Amino acid sequence: MRTNWFEDLFHGLALEFSRNAITPQETEQDVNFLEMELGLLR
Predict the structure, then answer these.
(1) What is the domain count for the chain?
(2) Intervals of the chain under pLDDT 50
């Protein structure tokens, strides 16, 4: 198995959908949650 499989996992409609499915604000909330739960600092 290739080690960089994730680089081209999504393309075409799947890529377009995944980019539009979650807003930047939702991503920021997810990151904040994970940082807090994992005790990470920015």
Answers:
(1) 1
(2) none
